[in-house]
Protein backbone atom coordinates (compact mmCIF):
# COMPACT_ATOMS: atom_id res chain seq x y z
CA UNK A 1 0.00 0.00 0.00
CA UNK A 2 1.45 3.34 -1.03
CA UNK A 3 1.59 5.93 1.76
CA UNK A 4 -1.02 8.70 1.46
CA UNK A 5 -0.89 12.06 3.19
CA UNK A 6 -4.39 13.01 4.32
CA UNK A 7 -5.45 16.50 5.30
CA UNK A 8 -7.39 15.39 8.37
CA UNK A 9 -5.94 17.54 11.13
CA UNK A 10 -6.55 21.29 11.30
CA UNK A 11 -6.67 22.55 14.91
CA UNK A 12 -6.60 26.14 13.65
CA UNK A 13 -10.02 25.75 12.02
CA UNK A 14 -13.11 26.57 14.09
CA UNK A 15 -16.35 25.87 12.27
CA UNK A 16 -19.53 27.74 13.16
CA UNK A 17 -22.72 27.40 11.16
CA UNK A 18 -24.36 30.67 10.13
CA UNK A 19 -27.65 31.53 11.79
CA UNK A 20 -30.49 33.85 10.90
CA UNK A 21 -32.41 34.40 7.68
CA UNK A 22 -29.58 35.47 5.36
CA UNK A 23 -28.73 32.95 2.66
CA UNK A 24 -25.15 31.88 1.94
CA UNK A 25 -26.23 29.43 -0.74
CA UNK A 26 -28.55 30.03 -3.68
CA UNK A 27 -31.60 28.58 -1.92
CA UNK A 28 -32.66 27.06 1.39
CA UNK A 29 -32.53 23.54 -0.04
CA UNK A 30 -28.73 23.87 -0.08
CA UNK A 31 -28.40 26.26 2.86
CA UNK A 32 -29.96 23.77 5.27
CA UNK A 33 -27.55 20.86 4.64
CA UNK A 34 -24.61 23.28 4.61
CA UNK A 35 -25.57 24.54 8.08
CA UNK A 36 -26.13 20.97 9.27
CA UNK A 37 -22.65 19.92 8.13
CA UNK A 38 -21.03 22.97 9.74
CA UNK A 39 -22.98 22.51 12.97
CA UNK A 40 -21.72 18.92 13.19
CA UNK A 41 -18.18 20.32 13.41
CA UNK A 42 -18.92 23.13 15.83
CA UNK A 43 -16.54 22.79 18.83
CA UNK A 44 -19.59 22.84 21.09
CA UNK A 45 -20.99 19.82 19.26
CA UNK A 46 -18.18 17.65 17.88
CA UNK A 47 -15.99 15.48 20.09
CA UNK A 48 -12.83 16.14 18.05
CA UNK A 49 -13.55 18.78 15.39
CA UNK A 50 -9.89 19.33 14.49
CA UNK A 51 -9.90 15.84 12.95
CA UNK A 52 -13.45 16.13 11.58
CA UNK A 53 -14.60 13.59 14.19
CA UNK A 54 -18.09 14.24 15.47
CA UNK A 55 -18.62 11.30 17.85
CA UNK A 56 -18.33 7.54 18.17
CA UNK A 57 -14.55 7.23 18.18
CA UNK A 58 -13.88 7.93 14.50
CA UNK A 59 -17.28 9.05 13.15
CA UNK A 60 -16.45 11.86 10.72
CA UNK A 61 -18.56 14.52 9.03
CA UNK A 62 -16.26 14.70 5.99
CA UNK A 63 -13.45 12.49 4.70
CA UNK A 64 -10.80 15.19 5.05
CA UNK A 65 -10.59 18.98 5.16
CA UNK A 66 -10.19 19.25 1.39
CA UNK A 67 -13.43 17.30 0.98
CA UNK A 68 -15.15 19.52 3.55
CA UNK A 69 -14.18 22.66 1.63
CA UNK A 70 -15.30 21.10 -1.66
CA UNK A 71 -18.66 20.13 -0.16
CA UNK A 72 -19.24 23.67 1.13
CA UNK A 73 -18.30 25.12 -2.25
CA UNK A 74 -20.58 22.70 -4.08
CA UNK A 75 -23.51 23.51 -1.80
CA UNK A 76 -23.02 27.25 -2.25
CA UNK A 77 -23.19 26.83 -6.03
CA UNK A 78 -25.90 24.16 -6.15
CA UNK A 79 -28.95 25.02 -8.25
CA UNK A 80 -32.51 24.18 -7.23
CA UNK A 81 -32.72 21.42 -9.86
CA UNK A 82 -29.37 19.82 -9.02
CA UNK A 83 -28.32 17.06 -6.60
CA UNK A 84 -24.94 16.75 -4.87
CA UNK A 85 -23.68 13.19 -4.39
CA UNK A 86 -21.47 12.42 -1.37
CA UNK A 87 -19.58 9.13 -1.13
CA UNK A 88 -18.13 8.49 2.34
CA UNK A 89 -17.56 12.14 3.12
CA UNK A 90 -16.29 13.21 -0.31
CA UNK A 91 -18.25 15.05 -3.03
CA UNK A 92 -18.15 12.95 -6.18
CA UNK A 93 -20.59 14.71 -8.47
CA UNK A 94 -23.33 17.24 -9.06
CA UNK A 95 -26.16 16.03 -11.30
CA UNK A 96 -29.08 17.80 -12.95
CA UNK A 97 -32.20 16.24 -11.44
CA UNK A 98 -35.43 18.19 -10.72
CA UNK A 99 -36.95 20.46 -8.09
CA UNK A 100 -38.59 17.61 -6.17
CA UNK A 101 -35.42 15.50 -5.97
CA UNK A 102 -33.16 15.48 -2.89
CA UNK A 103 -30.57 18.24 -2.99
CA UNK A 104 -27.98 15.94 -1.37
CA UNK A 105 -27.57 12.15 -1.54
CA UNK A 106 -25.12 10.55 0.92
CA UNK A 107 -23.76 7.01 1.06
CA UNK A 108 -21.28 6.18 3.84
CA UNK A 109 -19.01 3.18 4.42
CA UNK A 110 -20.71 0.85 1.96
CA UNK A 111 -18.70 -2.29 1.20
CA UNK A 112 -19.59 -5.51 -0.58
CA UNK A 113 -20.04 -8.08 2.24
CA UNK A 114 -17.08 -10.23 1.16
CA UNK A 115 -14.75 -7.28 1.78
CA UNK A 116 -16.65 -5.77 4.71
CA UNK A 117 -13.93 -6.39 7.28
CA UNK A 118 -12.21 -4.01 9.67
CA UNK A 119 -8.87 -4.72 8.00
CA UNK A 120 -10.10 -3.88 4.51
CA UNK A 121 -12.04 -0.84 5.67
CA UNK A 122 -9.00 0.44 7.59
CA UNK A 123 -6.83 0.08 4.49
CA UNK A 124 -9.31 2.09 2.42
CA UNK A 125 -9.61 4.65 5.19
CA UNK A 126 -5.84 5.11 5.42
CA UNK A 127 -5.64 5.55 1.65
CA UNK A 128 -8.25 8.30 1.80
CA UNK A 129 -10.84 6.25 -0.10
CA UNK A 130 -13.42 5.91 2.66
CA UNK A 131 -14.40 7.14 6.10
CA UNK A 132 -16.58 5.90 8.94
CA UNK A 133 -19.67 8.10 9.18
CA UNK A 134 -21.28 6.60 12.28
CA UNK A 135 -25.06 7.04 12.16
CA UNK A 136 -25.44 10.83 12.24
CA UNK A 137 -21.91 12.22 11.79
CA UNK A 138 -21.49 11.51 8.10
CA UNK A 139 -25.15 12.29 7.45
CA UNK A 140 -24.80 15.72 9.11
CA UNK A 141 -27.68 15.30 11.55
CA UNK A 142 -25.88 14.86 14.89
CA UNK A 143 -27.45 16.85 17.73
CA UNK A 144 -25.23 15.76 20.60
CA UNK A 145 -26.07 13.63 23.60
CA UNK A 146 -29.59 15.05 23.72
CA UNK A 147 -30.40 12.81 20.77
CA UNK A 148 -30.09 9.67 22.89
CA UNK A 149 -31.20 10.89 26.34
CA UNK A 150 -34.84 9.90 25.87
CA UNK A 151 -34.10 6.38 24.63
CA UNK A 152 -31.57 5.84 27.41
CA UNK A 153 -34.02 7.16 30.00
CA UNK A 154 -36.78 4.86 28.72
CA UNK A 155 -34.38 1.91 28.89
CA UNK A 156 -33.47 2.68 32.49
CA UNK A 157 -37.10 3.17 33.53
CA UNK A 158 -38.07 -0.16 31.97
CA UNK A 159 -35.09 -1.81 33.67
CA UNK A 160 -36.30 -0.48 37.03
CA UNK A 161 -39.82 -1.72 36.30
CA UNK A 162 -38.65 -5.22 35.45
CA UNK A 163 -36.01 -5.69 38.12
CA UNK A 164 -36.50 -3.20 40.99
CA UNK A 165 -40.28 -2.89 41.43
CA UNK A 166 -40.28 0.32 39.43
CA UNK A 167 -37.90 2.32 41.62
CA UNK A 168 -34.17 3.04 41.50
CA UNK A 169 -34.17 4.65 44.95
CA UNK A 170 -30.89 3.94 46.73
CA UNK A 171 -29.43 2.13 43.71
CA UNK A 172 -26.56 2.96 41.38
CA UNK A 173 -25.43 2.15 37.86
CA UNK A 174 -21.85 1.50 36.79
CA UNK A 175 -20.84 2.37 33.25
CA UNK A 176 -17.89 3.60 31.19
CA UNK A 177 -17.50 6.33 28.61
CA UNK A 178 -18.69 9.94 28.59
CA UNK A 179 -18.42 10.64 24.88
CA UNK A 180 -21.16 11.79 22.55
CA UNK A 181 -23.36 8.76 23.19
CA UNK A 182 -22.28 7.43 26.59
CA UNK A 183 -22.43 10.98 27.93
CA UNK A 184 -26.23 10.78 27.89
CA UNK A 185 -26.30 8.07 30.55
CA UNK A 186 -25.59 10.23 33.64
CA UNK A 187 -28.53 12.54 32.99
CA UNK A 188 -30.82 9.70 31.93
CA UNK A 189 -29.91 7.82 35.11
CA UNK A 190 -30.67 10.66 37.53
CA UNK A 191 -33.87 11.48 35.61
CA UNK A 192 -34.97 7.89 36.23
CA UNK A 193 -34.02 8.10 39.92
CA UNK A 194 -30.74 6.15 39.81
CA UNK A 195 -27.27 7.26 40.74
CA UNK A 196 -24.48 6.53 38.30
CA UNK A 197 -20.70 6.24 38.28
CA UNK A 198 -19.19 6.62 34.79
CA UNK A 199 -15.54 5.67 34.38
CA UNK A 200 -13.91 7.96 31.82
CA UNK A 201 -10.23 8.15 30.84
CA UNK A 202 -10.43 11.61 29.26
CA UNK A 203 -10.70 14.53 31.68
CA UNK A 204 -11.89 16.79 28.87
CA UNK A 205 -14.94 14.58 28.39
CA UNK A 206 -15.72 14.76 32.10
CA UNK A 207 -15.34 18.55 32.06
CA UNK A 208 -17.62 18.79 29.03
CA UNK A 209 -20.39 16.80 30.75
CA UNK A 210 -20.02 18.86 33.91
CA UNK A 211 -20.22 22.10 31.92
CA UNK A 212 -23.40 21.01 30.13
CA UNK A 213 -24.83 19.59 33.39
CA UNK A 214 -25.19 16.06 32.08
CA UNK A 215 -22.93 15.13 34.99
CA UNK A 216 -23.22 16.27 38.63
CA UNK A 217 -19.73 15.64 40.05
CA UNK A 218 -16.43 13.92 39.44
CA UNK A 219 -13.78 12.04 41.40
CA UNK A 220 -10.29 10.80 40.69
CA UNK A 221 -10.53 7.63 42.78
CA UNK A 222 -13.13 4.96 43.45
CA UNK A 223 -13.52 5.59 47.17
CA UNK A 224 -14.41 9.24 46.64
CA UNK A 225 -16.87 8.31 43.91
CA UNK A 226 -18.60 5.79 46.17
CA UNK A 227 -18.70 8.36 49.00
CA UNK A 228 -20.42 10.88 46.73
CA UNK A 229 -23.07 8.30 45.85
CA UNK A 230 -23.58 7.26 49.48
CA UNK A 231 -23.92 10.87 50.65
CA UNK A 232 -26.49 11.57 47.94
CA UNK A 233 -28.51 8.49 48.88
CA UNK A 234 -28.42 9.49 52.53
CA UNK A 235 -30.03 12.77 51.51
CA UNK A 236 -32.63 11.06 49.37
CA UNK A 237 -31.03 12.17 46.09
CA UNK A 238 -29.64 10.55 42.99
CA UNK A 239 -26.28 11.73 41.69
CA UNK A 240 -24.11 11.14 38.64
CA UNK A 241 -20.34 10.96 39.12
CA UNK A 242 -17.59 10.90 36.53
CA UNK A 243 -14.67 8.76 37.72
CA UNK A 244 -11.38 9.59 36.02
CA UNK A 245 -9.74 6.29 35.16
CA UNK A 246 -9.57 3.38 32.77
CA UNK A 247 -12.51 0.98 32.87
CA UNK A 248 -10.10 -1.87 32.08
CA UNK A 249 -8.49 -1.20 35.46
CA UNK A 250 -11.43 0.12 37.50
CA UNK A 251 -14.00 -2.56 36.67
CA UNK A 252 -11.84 -5.50 37.87
CA UNK A 253 -11.05 -3.47 41.01
CA UNK A 254 -14.76 -2.96 41.68
CA UNK A 255 -15.44 -6.67 41.10
CA UNK A 256 -12.72 -7.64 43.55
CA UNK A 257 -13.81 -5.15 46.22
CA UNK A 258 -17.51 -5.96 45.88
CA UNK A 259 -16.87 -9.61 46.72
CA UNK A 260 -15.71 -8.43 50.17
CA UNK A 261 -17.78 -5.26 50.64
CA UNK A 262 -21.32 -4.84 49.22
CA UNK A 263 -20.84 -1.04 49.15
CA UNK A 264 -18.87 -1.50 45.95
CA UNK A 265 -21.48 -3.71 44.26
CA UNK A 266 -23.42 -1.83 41.54
CA UNK A 267 -27.05 -2.65 40.91
CA UNK A 268 -26.67 -2.30 37.14
CA UNK A 269 -23.68 -2.40 34.79
CA UNK A 270 -23.89 -0.97 31.27
CA UNK A 271 -21.44 -0.20 28.48
CA UNK A 272 -21.81 2.41 25.76
CA UNK A 273 -18.34 2.80 24.32
CA UNK A 274 -17.43 2.58 20.63
CA UNK A 275 -17.42 -1.21 20.42
CA UNK A 276 -17.36 -1.12 16.61
CA UNK A 277 -13.73 0.01 16.65
CA UNK A 278 -11.50 -1.56 19.32
CA UNK A 279 -8.60 0.64 18.20
CA UNK A 280 -10.46 3.88 18.89
CA UNK A 281 -13.17 2.85 21.35
CA UNK A 282 -11.14 1.16 24.06
CA UNK A 283 -8.04 2.00 26.07
CA UNK A 284 -5.95 -1.10 26.91
CA UNK A 285 -5.39 -2.04 30.53
CA UNK A 286 -2.50 -0.20 32.18
UniProtKB/TrEMBL annotation:
GO terms for molecular function: urocanate hydratase activity. Residues 15-141 form the Urocanase N-terminal domain. GO terms for biological process: L-histidine catabolic process to glutamate and formamide; L-histidine catabolic process to glutamate and formate. Gene3D superfamilies: Urocanase like domains, Urocanase superfamily. The keyword Hydrolase does not apply. The keyword Ligase does not apply. InterPro entries: Urocanase-like, Urocanase_central_sf, Urocanase_N, Urocanase_Rossmann-like, Urocanase_sf. Residues 262-286 are annotated as: Disordered. Residues 144-286 form the Urocanase Rossmann-like domain. Pfam families: Urocanase, Urocanase_N. Its cofactor is NAD(+). Keywords: Lyase, NAD. This is Uncharacterized protein. It comes from marine metagenome.
Amino acid sequence: MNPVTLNRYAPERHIKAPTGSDLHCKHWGAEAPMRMLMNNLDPEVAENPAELIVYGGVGRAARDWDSFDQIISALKNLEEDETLLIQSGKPVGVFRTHHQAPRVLIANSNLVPHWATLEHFSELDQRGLMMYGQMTAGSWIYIGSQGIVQGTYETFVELARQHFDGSFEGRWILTAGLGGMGGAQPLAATMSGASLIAVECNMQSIESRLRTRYLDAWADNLDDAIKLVEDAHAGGRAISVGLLGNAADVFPDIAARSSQDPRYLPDVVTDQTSAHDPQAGYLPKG
